[in-house]
Design a protein that fits this description.
Length: about 600
């Protein structure tokens, strides 16, 4: 679904502090790159176009990509460099292109002496690039996230069909001189239910192809637009419904703290007996020991794995040795066409970055003036934490549709640019449940790509203009919430926050006013307002040695309803949280990680 993104440019003219020649050049002139102005003082410098830049290609890249690079730069193709050799070469290079085998760590950026302007990752994942160090040294990092989509989807379907018909096992058998037709009887795909876990680019392409095979396709992705799924005949369902009803489960989710080992003993126990698993995403989303136990018990009939928690896996890996598992060595993107596509995509991104163009595939934030960052820093933290809090309140499978951000400020519109704050809210909403890295450069692009419409409103306040903002309010249009009290009559999940003494605070949930520091984690409880409630909850937490950092209660009127917000330094156990929920006067509660 097409979405309209209302940027700050739609609302007000560019403010004074973003009209400086350096920043204007960054967003318009094609002769600017990012570098450190002085030690620990990030800024912008003009990149001289009088001589050709040097690009070091440290791993093999397709010929089409190399040709693009050679038209613009001096290209040094040096493969299989040791860390020491890479650090030795990098001080002479303006850009570096790697795949997954080269570690671009802090030592590389230190050795570059500030000359390295761009790192290009020919592929999606950037686990091998130190983003913090790159940003600190003023180096832009770009990747190539789209070119291998079809290849990965095709490999997923290849594993699905090969597993269903025992192709790999039968091939090995016949090559060993055996003829065992009865042993390798497979299962049909027609009419079977495939659960696609993660409905992004690859997941949706797998779903299209599985529909063509006559499968019934469902998907789980709480942040995917329901209308996009319906357009290809796919129903979005909850995680529990997906794993409980599927005959085949295909994983296409990113590896984040929320998805790490998401398939484990508990989730395998809820699946159909005889389910089959395909993973072309990330190895860490499956607890591999738990998968082996599920195969031994018969819950999982077969699995097809292209990725592993440790790559390459140890030779004695039980999954690799099992005859009920098809294993391939991370071949998802390994087609001639995909490799050429990745080469072209990353070459274009690197050349564009060297010209000063800011690509949507950049994965770290561009430098902004240090004084602006210093002033906005607590509000940037507040914005991201409000986003992280709000996304955890979303329940159901219909996804985020629209986001409204309201800023209360004593400053005029010309003195307040909200692009960085909007980007950080988008980052907080999307990054925890996605493999995408979001910053000022790509935030609006990612939001639009995901069908999320963003509107912004500024409310002028009779307040001191000394502080840039008085409050930030985040509202998500969503029919369901894990904490229904957060939903206004308008159907918007609503949270609001302020900065107090430099610390982000949550000050409103729904219509209830609270005051709790956004540090550590948070427990929200809706309760009947009566004596002893604070003591009961604190007692349960104290028994588990969970330290309470802040506690605030907001109520409508005495003895009516109230919302209690409790900041905790440690994560309570499931048992303690269950005990809190069982307190008779507590009507709703939710635990949120910040």
């Amino acid at each position: 679904m097409a979405a309209t993104i209302f940027t700050s440019a739609n609302l007000k003219a560019t403010p004074t502090w973003l009209r400086s020649s350096s920043l204007s050049a960054t967003f318009g002139v094609t002769s600017v790159c990012f570098r450190c102005r002085t030690e620990n003082a990030p800024g912008f410098v003009v990149f001289s176009m009088g001589s050709k830049p040097t690009v070091l290609v440290a791993e093999k890249l397709g010929a089409a990509g190399l040709d693009l690079l050679k038209d613009f730069a001096n290209v040094d193709c040096s493969y299989n460099l040791t860390p020491e050799e890479l650090c030795s070469k990098i001080s002479q290079c303006d850009a570096l292109i790697v795949r997954s085998g080269t570690k671009v760590n802090r030592q590389v950026f230190e050795a570059s002496g500030g000359k390295l302007k761009v790192v290009g990752r020919a592929g999606v994942g950037i686990d091998n690039v130190d983003l913090s160090a790159a940003t600190e040294y003023g180096c832009l990092v770009v990747n190539a996230p789209t070119a291998n989509t079809v290849a990965a989807a095709e490999h997923g379907i290849a594993l699905l069909t090969a597993m269903a018909r025992n192709v790999a096992q039968a091939d090995a058998s016949i090559k060993s001189g055996q003829w065992q037709r009865n042993k390798y009887v497979g299962v049909s795909l027609v009419g079977k239910t495939l659960a696609v876990m993660g409905f992004g680019k690859v997941g949706s392409e797998v779903a299209r192809r599985a529909k063509g095979l006559g499968m019934h396709v469902i998907a789980h992705d709480p942040y995917a637009p329901a209308d996009r799924a319906r357009a290809i005949g796919v129903t979005l369902v909850s995680f529990e419904e997906a794993i409980a009803s599927a005959d085949f489960i295909s994983l296409h989710m990113p590896l984040t703290p929320a998805t790490s080992k998401v398939l484990n003993d508990d989730t395998f126990a809820k699946m159909k007996k005889g389910v089959r698993i395909i993973n072309v995403a990330r190895g860490g989303v499956i607890d591999e020991d738990a998968l082996m136990r599920a195969i031994d018990s018969g819950i999982v009939a077969q699995a097809a794995l292209d990725v592993f928690a440790v790559e390459p896996p140890p030779k004695d890996n039980k999954l690799v040795q099992s005859d009920k598992i098809i294993a391939t060595p991370h071949l998802g993107a390994s087609t001639v066409e995909a490799q050429e596509g990745v080469a072209i995509e990353i070459a274009e991104a690197v050349v564009g970055a060297l010209k000063g163009e800011l690509a949507a595939t950049s994965v770290n934030a561009p430098m902004v003036p240090a004084e602006v960052l210093m002033e906005l820093k607590p509000y940037v933290d507040l914005a991201e934490k409000l986003g992280r809090l709000a996304v955890q309140l979303i329940a159901g499978g219909s996804g985020m549709k629209s986001l409204k951000i309201t800023y209360g400020s004593g400053r005029s519109g010309d003195d307040l640019d909200t692009r960085l704050l909007r980007a950080m809210i988008t980052k907080g909403l999307i990054e925890p449940i996605s493999a995408v890295f979001i910053n000022l450069v790509n935030a609006d692009f990612i939001a639009k790509q995901r069908g999320l419409t963003i509107t912004e409103e500024r409310i002028p306040l009779d307040a001191s203009p000394e502080a840039p903002l008085t409050f930030i309010q985040v509202q998500i249009a969503h029919p369901e919430s894990y904490f229904p009290t957060s939903v206004l009559d308008s159907g918007m999940i609503t949270v609001e926050g302020r900065v107090k003494d430099g610390i982000p605070h949550l000050t409103k949930v729904g219509t209830f006013e609270v005051d709790v520091s956004l540090e550590g984690s948070l427990i929200l409880c809706r309760q009947v307002d009566q004596p002893g409630m604070v003591g009961k909850v604190a007692s349960i937490l104290g028994e588990e040695n969970v330290n309470v950092s802040f506690m605030s209660v907001g109520r409508i009127a005495p003895r009516m309803h109230a919302v209690m917000a409790i900041g905790v330094d440690e994560e309570p156990s499931k048992e303690s949280l269950a005990r809190i929920g069982e307190i008779p006067a507590i009507e709703e509660f939710v635990f949120l990680k910040l």
